[in-house]
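Sequence design from tokenized structure. All designs in this work follow the same two-part layout: the structure record, then the generated sequence. An example of the structure record is given first.
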């Protein structure tokens, strides 16, 4: 973990961030164009009837070649895959003891600077950067009750521990740090992507990333606006590889002590709806993706 001299406090609140963002963020497309809608329909399953127990492993519908050949813009490959997998709402999970959202002590959501893609470093009065194997993770937000439509304009607050299993704002010596925490607004495809490091392992938990989904960016500091609270599970293969690398010695010792089956969050179903799709290497970094059906 690297440190530089702290700079003057410029914590002016999330409202300041919102005012700054208004002038430069592009206008959200809440309703997709007719051509894109046809493409989405081609890879989206029909809405499940009330009380349906459709499996997330069901085969995707056959592609519509007519829609695929249309000149209109089509959704990204990641979104297409997400739509094909939709059908079961992701389980809600605990935010845990270190949320930093005001429900258990500090509230980073009220801080200027929290809206960002790269959450590797602290912001505000500290320039500390968390060291570790690079990780980029993408969450695809889908409205499960309305034909798996992308939740454009929703907002995600994501946070996780450092490579030693410690949380900013809470663990000893990190009370004045806020690294590995950040908020983003979903794009027109309902996607948010964060740049971070591979989270560590601590006793009692399988390696994971926490997140909360809000109705909009402006509602991240408002009570009663949370749509989903859940967690992303890292894959066993990626964990074993990363924890064998330099700097992850503490995680290497802790990782064998908790399995997916014994984890108090993922253990009921093995994390089947929360296990990320992952690829990469220690040298080049990892990418993770997960469909978040709400």
């Amino acid at each position: 973990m690297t440190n530089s001299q702290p700079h003057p406090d410029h914590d002016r609140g999330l409202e300041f961030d919102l005012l700054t963002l208004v002038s430069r963020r592009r206008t959200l497309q809440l309703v997709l164009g007719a051509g894109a809608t046809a493409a989405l329909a081609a890879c989206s399953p029909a809405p499940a009837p009330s009380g349906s127990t459709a499996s997330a492993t069901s085969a995707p519908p056959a592609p519509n070649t007519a829609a695929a050949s249309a000149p209109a813009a089509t959704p990204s490959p990641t979104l297409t895959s997400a739509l094909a997998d939709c059908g079961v709402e992701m389980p809600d999970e605990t935010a845990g003891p270190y949320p930093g959202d005001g429900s258990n002590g500090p509230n980073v959501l009220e801080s200027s600077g929290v809206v960002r893609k790269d959450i590797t470093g602290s912001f505000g009065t500290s320039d500390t950067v968390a060291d570790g194997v690079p990780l980029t993770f993408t969450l695809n937000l889908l409205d499960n009750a309305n034909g798996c439509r992308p939740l454009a304009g929703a907002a995600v607050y994501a946070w996780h521990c450092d490579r030693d299993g410690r949380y900013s704002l809470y663990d000893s010596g990190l009370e004045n740090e806020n690294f590995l925490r950040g908020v983003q607004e979903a794009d027109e495809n309902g996607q948010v992507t964060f740049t971070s490091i591979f989270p560590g392992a601590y006793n009692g938990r399988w390696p994971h990333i926490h997140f909360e989904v809000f109705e909009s960016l402006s509602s991240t500091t408002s009570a009663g606006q949370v749509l989903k609270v859940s967690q992303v599970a890292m894959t066993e293969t990626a964990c074993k590889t990363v924890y064998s690398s330099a700097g992850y010695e503490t995680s290497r010792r802790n990782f064998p002590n908790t399995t997916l089956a014994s984890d108090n969050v993922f253990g009921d179903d093995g994390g089947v709806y929360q296990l990320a799709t992952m690829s990469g290497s220690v040298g080049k970094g990892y990418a993770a993706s997960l469909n978040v059906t709400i």
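Confidence is low (pLDDT under 50) at residues 3-74. We note this feature because it recurs in several other targets discussed in the main text.
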